[in-house]
Amino acid sequence: MSLEKFLHNLHFDIDKANQPNWEADWEDAPLAYKLYSGLPVVPLSAEVPLTLTGGEPPARLDLNRVGHFLWYVFGFTQLSQSVFPMDSTEQDSYPLQSYRRFAPSGGALYPNELYVYLKVEGLLDGVYHYDAAHHSLVLLREGNFDSYIARALGNRCDISSCFGIVFVSTRFWKNFFKYNNFAYRLQGLDAGVLIGQLMEVAKRFGFASGVYFQFLDTAINHLLGLSEQEESVYSVIPLSVETTNWSTNGRGLYENVISEELRQELPAIHPEHFERSLSVREYPMITAMNEASKLNSTWAFRVMEGRGIAERVDPAVVLPHIEPLSYDLAEACGNRFSPDMDFVLGMVSQQQLAALLLEATASFSYRNDLDEAYRSSFPRVTIYSCLYNVEGISNGAYYYDSTEHMLREICPGDHRLHLQTGMSLDNVNLLQVPLCLHVAGDKKFYKKELGYRGYRIQQMEAGMLVQRLLLAASALGMGGHPLLGFDANLSDELYKMDQQGKTSLIQIPIGPYRSRPWLRGSLHS
């Protein structure tokens, strides 16, 4: 199967993308976290702050503050146990246990890992893995790697002024064992959700940040000691509390750095880690996609030229002007809930809808290496929605025009049942949902400009926007449940996306919900 056909099937016909007769072997499932052995370990403080409302640069940056930051980004926050219902056909029912984090993940499998290059008080300079299971740092390489990382990014960031660099990686087997080739789509979305959480937490800690989607893959993976057949970095995120040059078009464009040549400057490391699965099966399409997406030269880096959005003449609904939401991120994270059959139909006010859309899109504006600095550009992922029972707004399908803060009506009417028929599982009753949002992006994932790397970048940006929507929904007292089991062709036709060259990337029902009868225990100290 060609890579082009694989990505098409991944989106529109998953059965053709997956290997046939696939069954997950839960007895041989991998751990949801990575464990290294035989390396120096630095424990992190568990006395994390109980609120996150700040934004000012820290008066003192030390290991404790970095540890608190990492916990809110990707630490374990909750132990969840569930059992099969009483009417289940399973003969031997037993509790299913999972470790939850503030950022959601498909099936709570968390295929991503966090690595950090740190230069802070109380810690040896070097590259570390964040061990979420023990809330600690594991030292992989000691030393100063400013020049190496800067060149791997094409000299487009002043690494010397940054106290830390975060590397978000994907471990392929961690969710391939369950989702087969569909894992490739999930891995990009999960990485984006994690990045979205990281960016929001960074703001509360007073850290400046930027996302680099383009870097020399092999050189960066070599720095971290990763086997590219098992794991690969998806994004590089510098963190700073000082003035930093975030240029996307610096001198790196004139100095070609070759990944293989840069890699030769550092000796290889092969840190041992524990793999619970006794049988790790092959995933040739995922490794082929990863290989086709790699960048081996900094001259291959691209800056996106803004594509204009086709002018729409649809009837418009101007949303009320509201002040930006002010909320405690720690509380919003703790209250975030993904309802299944827990949605309860209720009236949503225009103010709530306006706050949800404005907060998510305003927060989504971020520094990255695709857009030219100081030049406004249209977002690559946008929001469409089917509304029902929203105060003062007719039921219908709408496009959210974030530049004008208005809804543009595409197709009037109640579309809940229509959308329900497009779901592959009946795990959410859309008739109880007032807001059904779809995050959309370019149907050809900017392949002309970014090649196959454009697909995973698009999935990451969609995930980043999804996390902003979920946090805003939580702050407004509503729940949201991201879904990939929907018919993209159906929603694309409903929103007339073909006219825009777009497609629906993910579906998110949002609305009021009833409390679930369950026992919950927080791992928050």
Automatic annotation (TrEMBL):
Domain Nitroreductase: from-to ranges: 101-235, 427-509
Pfam families, per the entry: Nitroreductase
Transmembrane segments: none
GO terms of molecular function: oxidoreductase activity
PANTHER family referenced in this protein's UniProt entry, alphabetically: NITROREDUCTASE MJ1384-RELATED
UniProt-recorded name of the protein: NADH oxidase
